Fold each of these.
Amino acid sequence: MKRRISLMVVAAVAAGACGGGPEQAVEHSAPAEALAPRVGPERTKLPDPKEAPDWAPPMVDTWRMDNGIEVWHLHETSAPLISLEMVFPNGAASDPADKAGLTALMADMLDEGAGALDALPLQESLQRLATDYGTSAATDGLEASMSMLADKLDESLALFADILRRPKMPADEFERRKAQHIAQALANEANPFNAASVVMRRALYGEGYGGLPSGGVRGTLERITHEDVLAHYKAIVQPRGATIVVVGAVERAPLEAALKKHLGDWQGEPTARKATPVAEPVVRGVYFIDFPGSTQSSVVVARRTAGTKQAEYFPARMFNWALGGAFTSRLNLNLREEKGYTYGARSTFYRWQDAGVYALMAQVKAETTRASLDEMFKELRGMAGERPLTQQELDEAKGGTLLGFPGRFEHISGVASQYASLKLDGYPADWLTKYPDNIEAVTLEQANAAARGAAAPDTFLVVIAGDRAKLEPTLAELGLPVFVYDAQGNALAGTKAAK
Amino acid sequence: MKALVPFLAVASMAAAPTPPPEVPVETHRLENGLTVLLSHDDRLPVVAVEVRYLVGSAHEKPGKSGFAHLFEHLMFQGSKSYDDEYFKPFEPIGGAVNGTTNTDRTNYYQRVPRNYLELALWMESDRMEGLLEVLTVEKLDNQRDVVKNERRQRYENTPYGMVWKYLSEELYPQGHPYHHTTIGSHEDLTAASLDDVKDFFEQYYVPSNAVVSIVGDFDKKEALALVDKYFGHLPAGARAEMPKPAPITKTTPKHISETDDVNLPRVYLAWHTPALYADGDAQMDVLASVLTDGKSSRLYKPLVYDQKVAKDVAAFQASHALGSFFVVMATAAPGKSVDELYTALDKALKDALAAPPTEDEMTRSINGWRKSFYERVVSVLDRAQLLSNYYHLTGKADYLAEDLKRYTALTAQDVHTHAKRWIDVGSAVRIDIVPGPQKPVEGGSAQEGIQ
C-alpha cells in the first residue's frame, strides 16, 4: 500500500540560515536593521516535484450477516472515533409523487422515541455519549448514520438498534415533525438558488423518478398521513439488502460481535418500489421563478443524462473538469475571472442510479443574466465541438482527480460517506480502488465523444430565479418559450406546463 | 508518527476515558520575523501550507470597509514570477486551495501531495514578495465585481443574510473596528484604489506580520530550509498591532426591525461577551449548548417542542479577538407573528437563565465539546489553521490541551455566573427580520455597470 520515500535535504540554502530550534518567546520580532540584505531565490520556473508517493485507497473488509446485512469495514486509527452509516436500498424515489418527502419525514420520525425511551430522553442519552445521529433520504437509498467515540460503540449501537428496530413513531410526534418539515419547505421557497434547483428537476423529470426534491415541497408534505409513515417504515427499514459501513478505531472481531449483539436477530425484507423515469421528452424552454427586486439571478442550464452506470461516466468526468468542474475551468475563468458577472460558475453531473442531470449554474448580477446565459451556451458549443477538450486539459483533469485522491481520505466520516455513496450509486465495494485506473484509461477521443453528446447545446433547458419584470424582455431572442413556475416547482396558471 | 492519537482498545468494557488529542508542534522564527509552525503527521501523503497575515477587517480605515477581503482576492491574481491565476499550478495536482478573511486575520492555504511542498512555498512567497509588480487596475476592477457578487450571493440574496450587517452596526459603535462587516459596502468597494492596495500590501504583507504553518507528511529540516530559501530574504516589516478599542462591558439595548425576502419572521437577540480564549468565552459556548442543543434543551423544548411558536431556535457564541457576542435566534412557526415569537422567547430565556445548568446538562454539553476536539484536528488543513490561530491569539501554538481544559474544567456555577454577568435578557440588541420587500442596497444598483 504505502511505501516510504526518503526525502533529500535541499542543498544550496542561501546564507542566513533557518530559524533554529523551537522558540518560546514569540511576542517580539527580529530587528530588521540587523539583517544583511539577501538575494532571493532564482525564479525562472516553478519547482519540479519530488518523487511521487505511492498510495492506493484502502480496501474495505466485507462480510454478510446471517440476516442479509452486508458490512463494509475499514480499520482506521488516526483518531479514537468511529463513523457508521447504514444504507437501506430504497429512498426518496420510492415516495409517491403526490407525497414527495415521505421517506425523509419517516426517517426523521425514527428517533422520536424508541425502545424504552421517549423522544427527549432518547436524545439526552445520545448526548451523554457524545454520539451524533442523523438520517438522510437520498434518491436511491436511505442513510442512517452515527459518529461516536470509539469506546462508546456498544452503548451507541444499542440506541441505534432501538431507533431502527423499535421506533415508537407516535401520532403527536408525527404531527410535530410534519409541521416542522412543512415550515422548513416554506422557508426554503424564499431562497432563489433552492427554488431554481427544485424547478430544474421538475422541468427535466416531471413527477417521475428524480423529478421531486427528496425533502418534498409544502404541497406534497401536507398530504402525508401518520399511516403513510408507519407503512413506509415497514417497506424500507429492513435488514435484508441493507449495508453498514463502519470506518474508524475498531477492529473486525469486536465490531462483528457488537453488530451481531444488537442487529443479529433482526429479520425482514423491504417491499418498497422505485418510481420509473418519465418517458416523455423534455420541453425545452426558459423556466422562470419570479423574485421581484432581486439583485442577483440564479441561472441554471440543464439537461437529462443517464444514471450512475453509464459507460461514459469517466470520460464525462474528464471533460467536465475543464468545462466547469474546477476553479480554472473555462466557465469560471470566463464568467468570474474575465467578466466579473459572478462569484463563481460551475458545472456538475448529478447522477442517480436510473437517471441524472448535467447542469451549469451560477448566481450572477441581475443585469448580466442574459450575457451569462449566452456565455454558458458559448462554452457548451465550444466543448461540444467548436473548441474541443485539449490533451493538456485532459492531462490536468486526470492529474487533479488522481493526485488529489488521498486528500479525500482524511476524515473518517468523509471516508464512511464515500463508501456509503457507492452503495447509493449501485457500485461494488472495490469501486474506489479501481477508480484511479479507470480515470487513467480515459482517452482524449473518449472524452470528446462524451462531450459531443452530453454538452450538445440544443439539449439544454434554462432555469432562472430572478426579477421577472426586469429580465423577461432580455430573453426574447433566445427563441425558447417562457414558462413561469412557483418555488415549489408548480407551473403557474396561464403558462404552459412542461410534462 | 503513524497515528495522531494512540489507538484505544475498543468495545464497551473500556472504562478509561479516551485520552485527549495530541498535536505536536514546533514554533520557529526566521531572522526577518516570519513565524513558522511545523506539525508532522504521515498518515496520508499530503501536506498543508497555511500563510496567515495578522490583518483583518478590524484594521480597515474609515471608508475602506471590505478592503482586507478584496485584497485577499487580489492575492490570487498573479505575482511577479507567476503572473497568472494562483489556482493554475495547483488544480492539476489535486491541490485544495483557498483564502479567507475575518475581522482579525487573513489566511491563504493549500493542501498538496507531499512531493509538491516546494511548489506551495514558491507560490506563497512569490505573492508575499511581488504582488504589486504585476497588479493592474483591470485585475482590481474585475475582483471588485467578483466581491460585489459575493456580497449579493451571500448577504443580499440569501434569506436573512443582511442581518450580520445590522448586528455589527447595532452592537458596535461608530468607529469601533467591528462596526462594519468583513464583506464591506458597495460604496467602499467601489472607492478602493490601486494606492490603497499598495499601502495595505506594504504595511501588512510582510514576514513579521505573517505565520507559515506546515502540517502533514514532510521532513522538518527540509521544510525549514525551504521556508528560509523562499521567504528568508524578504524585508522584515513590522507586526501589525491589533486595534485597541475601548472594551465594551455592557450591552446597550436596541431594537430594530427590517424587511427581507423571507417567508417566516425571525428574531435575533445579541449581547457583548468575552473575547475568544478569554475567561467567559468557553462558558458562553457551554451556555449555548444548554440553551439550544437538542430537543430537551432549555429553549428548544418550550419554544419548538411544547408551544410550537418557533420553527427553530439556535444560540451561539460568535468569538472574536477583540470581543465576542452571544446570539439567540428564533424563527417563527408558520402563522405566528414576530410579537408572539418574541414574547415566548423572552419568557423562555428568562426561565432558562434563572438556574445554573444541571449536572446532566453539563455532562451532555461538555462531552460534545470534548469530542469536537478530536474532529477538529483530523484534517491537515484544519490543523494548520487551528495551530496558527492559537499562536496568533494566545502566543502558544501548542495551546490545544489548554483549550480543551477550558471546557472540561468548567462547573455549572462558572457557566451560571457568566450567563448572569453577560446575558441580561431585557437589554439585548434585538433585530427582527420580517417578510417584505428588501431594503434597496446602496450602491448595489444597475448603474454601476460591468466592464
Amino acid sequence: MKAFKTIEDFEETAAHLGRQGSGTTVPTVTISSGTCGRARGSDKVVEAFRSEIAKRKLADKVRLRVTGCHGFCQVEPTVVVDPAGILYQGVGVGDVPEILERTVLKGETIERLLYTDTKKKTHAREADIPFYKKQDRRILSQNKLVDPTRIDDYIAIGGYSALAKTLEGMSPEKVIAEVKTSGLRGRGGAGFPTGAKWEFCRNAAGEAKYVICNADEGDPGAYMDRSVLEGNPHSVLEGMIIGAYAIGARKGYVYVRMEYPLAIEHVALAIQSAKERGLLGPDIMGSGFGFEVEICRGAGAFVCGEETALIASIEGKRGMPRPRPPYPAQSGLWGKPTNINNVESWANIPLIVRKGGDEYAKTGTKTAKGTKIFSLVGKINNTGLVEVPMGITLREIVEDIGGGTPKGKKFKAVQTGGPSGGCIPAKHLDLPVDYDSLAKAGSIMGSGGMIVMDETTCMVDVAHYFLSFTQEESCGKCTPCRVGTRQMVDILAKIKRGEGTRQDITQLEQLAKMVKLTSLCGLGQTAPNPVLTTLRYFRDEYEAHVNEKTCPALVCKDLVQYEILESKCVGCTLCAKECASQAISGEAKKPHTIDQEKCIRCGVCMTVCPEKVAAVVKKSPAKVAVA
Amino acid sequence: MIHLNIDGRKISVEPGATVLDAARKAGVNVPTLCDHAGLSPFGACRLCIVEVEGKPGVSASCSTPAADGMTVLTDTENLRALRKGIMELLISEHPNSCLICADKMDCWENHECTRRAEITTGCKFCPQTGRCEFQNAVHQVYGDKGASTKLPSRYKNIPVERRDPFIDQDDNLCILCGRCVRACADVEMNNVLDFMHRGSQSRVGTPFNRPLTESGCVFCGACVDVCPTGSLSERVRRWEGPAESSIASTCSYCSVGCQLELGVKGGRVVDSTPRRDGSLNEGHACVRGRFSVVEFTRSVKRLKHPMVRRNGELIEVPWETAVNAVAEGILRSKPEKSAVVYSGSCSNEDVYAAHKFARDVMKTKNVDNSLRLSYGPLTDGEGAGAPAARIADLADAAAVLIVGADPDFSHPVLAHKIKKSVSQGKTRLVIMSPSASRLSPLAACEIRYAPGAEKDTLDLLRARAVRKKVAESNGHIDIAAKILRRAGSVVIVYGTGLMRRMDGAANRDAVAALAKAVSAKVMPLFSRANDRGAQEIAASFEAGGLRTPEIFQAARCAKEPLDFLYLVGEDVPPGDYKAKFTVVQDMFLPAEAGKFADVVFPVAGFVEAEGTYVNLEGRIQRARRAAKPLGTSKTDWEILAAVAKKIGAAGFEYAEASEIMTELAKNVPFFKGVTFKALSKEGATYGKPAKAGKKVKAKKRSGLRMEHPERPDKNYPFSLVAEYDEFAYKSTPLAAQVPGIARIQQPAAVVLSPRDAESMGIGSGTPVSVISRRGRLAAKAVVSQDAREGVARMVARGGEASPALVMNGLLDPASKSPDEMCAVRIEKL
C-alpha cells in the first residue's frame, strides 16, 4: 500500500476508489459476519462461498464482501445480494450453491430464505423490512459497505475525506466550532456536549495531551460499540484523528475490553493499515500534523468504563475512579489533559465534519441531535442493533422496529441505559428518546442498551439482577457504593424469598436515594436507578412480594410452585425422567404428580412437557392452596 | 486568596485549598475518615459531604476545590441524615459493640479475656481501643445520643493475618479508607499494598496475597500509623491503649537521626512513631525507629544489675562491689597496657566521658571506637577531603552518585529523599555497586564492578568526567560521567563498600578527587547514630595510641596481653582473649566479651537517658529520657564517673548529661556554643567542623593499585564481602533481640547469585560451609537475583564480629581499618 504524501494524493486515490465502487455492475454478495454472526455460523458460510466461487471459477463475475454486523441479530447469518438488494436470512452452508446459482447468476429470489415479519409478510429487499424501515442508519449502514480489514473499502465510501477536509483548511477552533454546532452529545451515557469537552481539553495548559476512545462497553446486553469497532474501525480512527487535531493531542488510546477479540483484531489491523497509508504517523498526509494510536486492553472490570478509572487502568493501576475535579480535560492520563469519548461519539465525528454541523443538527430534538444506536434485546421479536434519530418514541422502537413482544405476551417495561438505567413502563411508551426525557422518567440514555420486558418479567427480579451486577462490579472504593449496594441486594433477595417486610421497602428506598446522592462516581450514582424506577412504576409488584408473598410474574423461585394438571397430563413420563430431584411420580399413561417438598423449582418439567399437552403450570403457592 | 462562606462564616484560603481545608480553617468540624494530613484527597468515605450553593446534590468537601464566592453548608438536616446513612453502612460491616453500645465504657465483664480473644468482636478486644478514629467519627456524626443501626450486621469474618513480623492485619476492622494504600504508594513509594477484589469483597492486600516479607515491604510502619481503625496494628502495641504522654526524641539506631515521638504509659515506652512537623525525617521512619525501639528496650535479656565474675560465673553484685572491682583493676594495670573501646552508638556525653576517662583516669592513649571498623579512613582527624553534603542537598541535587552503599537498606529514610527527588524528575541517580539493589530500578545509570576494583572504577569515572573531548559512547561509565559532568550540583553518597577495604584511604581520596572534578559534595553514610560525633570528639583528644583492631589484637596476644580492657558498648571479634581484666558495659551481655568479662555493668537504653547525637550530616540533636532505666542500670557516663570517683580522679563531678555538654562545647570546636537548653529551643543545630579535611590532590589516573591479596583463585573462587551490620545498637545486633528484624535480615546468611547457586546445587535455605584460606563458617545460603556472580555477601554480625576480620586480618595501612573481603569457597553441608 502506498502512503499518502499529500492531501491531493489522498483525494486522487479516494476518487478513484469511489468510482471503482459505484460504477460497478458486478453482483456483490455481502455477508454479515461480526461476532454475533460468527456465533451463528457466518464464517462457515463465508468459507462455503469462497470455495464455491473458486470451484465455479466465478471470481471475476461475483464479488464477495465479508463485513461486520448489519444489526439484525434475530435472523443471522444474513446474506445480501446486490445490486438487487435481496436479503436472505438464516443462511446455512447448504444454501450457498443455490444462492450463487439462482440469485447471483440468474437474478431469481429464493422464497424460503426470505425474511417474514411478525405479520407473516415476506420481504425480499432489505430496505422493505420493517426492522430497517424506521431506522436512520448513518453509522451502522457503513458496516454493510465496508470490509473492516480493507482500508480502501472505507476510503471508497468517502472515508477519511473528513480528515482530509480538516487538514486541508480547517483550524482546530473551526473543527471544535463545527462539533459544537452539530449539538453532538456524548454517546457513552452522560451526554456531555462533545464540542465543549474538546474545547476544555484544547484550552487546558500543557504541551502533551491525549485522546482516548472508550470501548469498554460493559452494560449487560449492550453491544453497539463492539459492532462499530468490528465492522468499521476506521470511522472511529478517523474521528479520533480529527479530535486529536482539534484538541492538540499527539497520542491516542483505544481502550477496548478483552472480551472483544474480533474488535481488537480489527482495530489493530485498522491502525496498521492507516499507518501504511500515512493516515496515522508523524506527518499525516503531509500536513505536518502527527498522531499515533495504541490499543489498551481492559481486563474485564465494568468500572473501567468510568473515565478516571479507565485512565488509571491505562496507567497500569487498579481501575478505580478518583474524585473530579480535576477533570480529565485538565489532568487525565499521566496527569496530562485528556479527552475521552465513546466509540459511537468518535464515529459520528467524520459525519459531522463531512456534512457540516448545521446539517447534522437537522436531525433530532432541541437538545439531542443526530442518531443513536440502541441494542434492542430482551422479550422482543426483532432483536438487533437499531440506529434511530433522537426524539423517536420508545413505542416506535419497540413496536415498529422491534415488532413487539413475542408470543403475544403483554409488554411491561423497557429498561434503558443498562445497570445504571431505569425501567420505563408501558404508560411512558410515547416518551421521545433523548437524554432529558429519559432522565425525567428516572432512567438514562446510557450507552444504548434497551432491554424489553413483558408480563413474564418480575420487576423485583430485574432490580435484583442489575443491582447484583453493579454490586459485584463496584470497585469498592467509596462506602455508599461498596456497602450500600450490598445491603440493597440483600434486601432485594430477602423480598424475592418472600421474607421481606414493608419496612424493607422503605429501607431499600432510603438506601437507594442515599447511594445515588453520595457515591463517588457514576457507577454508584446510577446503580440505584433500577431499584428507584421499579419502585416508582411497579411498587405493586414489591408489595405483592411483601404482603401477599406472591410473585405476580411467577419468576421468584421461592414464591412459585409447579403443578401437573390432572386433566391434561397424558402420562408420557417425560417430566418424571428429566426431573433432577425425582420429585415427579406417576405410572405411565396416568397423570403424574409433583412432590412439592422435593421440588427445587427448576422448571424442567414445564420445558419438557410437549407443547400440545402443556400439562405443567406455574402458580403462586397461595393460589394453589385456595384452589 | 479565595473568599468563601462556610456555615455563615467568612473565610479566605489560598488557591488550591479544598472546601474541607477552608472549613477547618473556619473552625467548622466536618467528619472525615479517609482524609489524612500528608495524603492526597481520596474521596472514598463520603462522610465529608457538604452542600454547595448552586450545585446540585452534595459534594465531598475533601476533593472539592474551594472557589471564590462559594457558599457552603456543612450541617443541614439533609446532610446529617445522609452522613448517618453512610455511617450505618460502615457500622454494618464492622464489629459494632465498640461503636453503638451505650454501655461500652462501663462494661468490664469481658475485659479480662482480651488477650485471649482470637478475633476482634468489640471495643475491648480491639488493638485500637481508645485510639480509634472511626469511633470518634461515629461519635461526631451521631452526637451524644449514640449510634443506632437498622441494617443487619454483615460481619466479614475474615481470619486475622498474623504471618508477618510486627504487623497484624484484621480485615474485619477495615473500612477501606485507603489511607494505608496511599501512604505505601504515594508517600513511601513502596507500592506494597493495594486494594484487591471488587465490590463488597474489596480488601487491602499485597500482590497475589503473598506475605509482606515477600512483597517488598520494608516495614516502615507508615500504613499502621495512618490506619484509623485497628485493622493494621503493631503487634506488640496491641493492648496498650492510648499513651499517657509523649516525648520527642532522636532515634539512635543509625546515623540519619530521625526524630521520634515516644509514647509513654505507666513509665514505659509503648510506641515510637516518626515525627512529622519540622523534623528532618518528615514523618518517615524505618523498621528500626518504628518497630524496634519498644521490643529492644523491653527485651527480657537486658542486663538489670552489675555482675562480677567469680569462679568463672557472672553473678549479680551491688554497684559498690562492681565499681570497686573495676577501680582496683585499673590501679593494678599499666596505662600503656590498658585500652578503651567505645561504640559509635554512644551519645556525645558518653563518648567525651570515655575519652576523658582514658586520659585522666586510666592515663592511656589507647582509646578508640567502632567507627574505626566501619569508616576507619575518616577517623584520625581526616575529613572526607571534600565539602560535606547535608541531607537537604539530596533533594536539590541534579545528580546523586551512590558508591559502595545500599542506603535503601541501611539508611531507608535518607534513601527515601533520593527516591522522592528522583521520581519527581529533579534528580538523576547513578549507582556504583558490585550488585543490584532496591534502588536499581530508579537509577539512570548503574556501574557494576568487582569488589576490590573500587578505586580503579572511581578513577576511571573521574577521568571520563573531566575529559574535554567526549567520544559518543554508550558505556555505563561514559553515561555516568556525562550525567555527573552536566549536572551542576552533585552529591556523592558512599558507604562501607569503599571504606572497609585495605585501600580504604585511597578510595576516600578517589572520591574526593572525583568530587572536586564534578564539584560535588560528599556524604559518607556513617553507620552508628553518633559516629560523626565520635569522629569529632576523638579528633580533639591526643592521638597516638592503639587503634581498635590493634587493641583487639593486643587483647588476644598470648605473650604480652593487655592488662585492662574497657569495652563501652562494644564487643570484640571472636577469638581467644588473654586480657587480664575486662570490663563491659552495655544493655545486653555482648556475645564474645560476655564470655570472659570480669565485670559487667548494665546500661540504660537510649529512651532511658538524656544525651545528644550528631547525625551523618553534622546535625546535633537531643535524645530524651522517656522511661526509667531498667533495674539499676545507669548511663555510660554515670558508670565511668562512678569509677573515676572511686579512684579519686577529679573532673567527673557531673550531676547530669547537660553539664558534660557544656564542658564538651568548650573543648571541642565542633560543639562550640551548644547547650541542652539551646537544643531544646531550636530542636537541633549544626556543628562547626574544624576543617573540611585535608586537601586532596587529584592524581593523574593511575593504572596501578594495590594488588588485593585476597583475589579469588581456583581453590577459593568467590569474593566474600562481609558487610558491616547496620542493624545494631552498640554491641547488640537488633536481630538478636527483635525477632521480626531477624526475619527481615536473615542472620548468618550468605547471599549468592542464582547461577552460582545453581552450579553448586544450592537453593535458598541450604546450609553451607564458607571456607577461606584461614577458617570456616557455617551459614545458610540465600539466592538473590540482585547478587553478582562470583561474589558472596554476608552481613558481619555485630556480636559475631566480621568474618572477614577473623579470616583475613588485613588492615588499611593508613587508617588501620579492617578489610571486609576475602576469597572463599562454598561447600554444601
